[in-house]
Amino acid sequence: MGLTLLLSIVLFAGVDLVHADAFQAERDGMISEIEQDVRDTSNWLKRSALDDRVLAAMARVPRHAFVPEELVGRAYQNSPLPIGHGQTISQPYIVAIMTDLLELEPGQRVLEIGTGSGYQAAVLAELGMEVWSIEIIEPLGERAEAALGEAGYGEVHLRLGDGYYGWEEAAPFDGIVVTAAASHIPPPLVSQLAVGGNMIIPVGSRFSVQELILISRVGADEIVTRQVLPVRFVPLTGGH
Ligand code: SAH
User: Fold this and answer.
1) Which of 31, 61, 69, 151 has the lowest tally of Cβ within 10 angstroms?
2) What's the CA gap between 107 and 208, in Å, rounded?
3) Has 90 been annotated as catalytic?
């Protein structure tokens, strides 16, 4: 009797451990794939490895909590996945390089345009940033708010609306990450970038190759831009 009870406790604990470990192992596999992709694209990125803190944060964030239930089994594939409403959660490699290129320090202020699933916002919060994020599709914004809260990132500031105009009351930002492709660099976002801050944004049309552009504000009236990498994103919508 006592032995049976003990055995079932051990088995139960074992099952739970296996479950937790399975996701950690999958996350670690995802990180290895990101590191390989970074090595393969190092000429574009101008670096052969990412900041360890970015990879460590991504090794902790439960990506499976930000994908639709039926896709949980594919949550740690290094690929974008559909999240409904014609939108996608970005490829982990893309999330990693965009986060890395912002060159953030803990406690800095970051604005994201295109909350989508909430995953990118979670990665930034896990890195220790104060995060503001704007989503234009209401049901996605609501689902992201729930997912972020459940995963322990309830401190992220969320708003529904057109991110083209930024979040004036919370500006300036040390980092701005735009996760949908714009036809041009939105001037309101550039003006909300702090001196010393970086913005990363895909620019180009829906039907052609888009370029990931890094914009650094090096002075009050001076910005420097650099093309990083050809990419493919869903379009930035809205009335601008
Ligand atoms: N960062 C997201 C990626 C989502 S895909 C993630 O980690 O899951 C891009 C998102 O940008 C979509 O949800 C889309 O609805 C949103 N979007 C498109 N145009 C927008 C705009 N003008 N303002 C705010 N969000 C926008």
Assistant:
1) 69
2) 37
3) yes
Closest CA to 75 of 22, 114, 39: 22
- Centroid of ligand 1 to alpha carbon of 51 (angstroms): 25
Write down the pTM of the prediction: 0.92
Report the pLDDT value the prediction gives residue 20, as an integer from 0 to 100: 54
The catalytic residue among 8, 32, 48, 90 is: 90
Check if 140 has its Cβ closer than 6 Å to any atom of ligand 1: yes
Q: Which residues pair with 84 in a beta bridge?
A: 87
Ligand 1 contact via 61 beta carbon (within 6 Å): no
Residue spans per domain, the chain:
3-231
Say what the pLDDT of residue 19 is: 45
* pLDDT tens digits, 83-119: 999 999 999 999 999 999 999 999 999 999 999 999 9
Pick the CATH number of 3-231 from 3.40.50.150, 3.40.50.720, 1.10.150.130, 3.40.50.460: 3.40.50.150
Query: Does any ligand 1 atom lie closer than 6 A to the CB of residue 114?
Result: yes
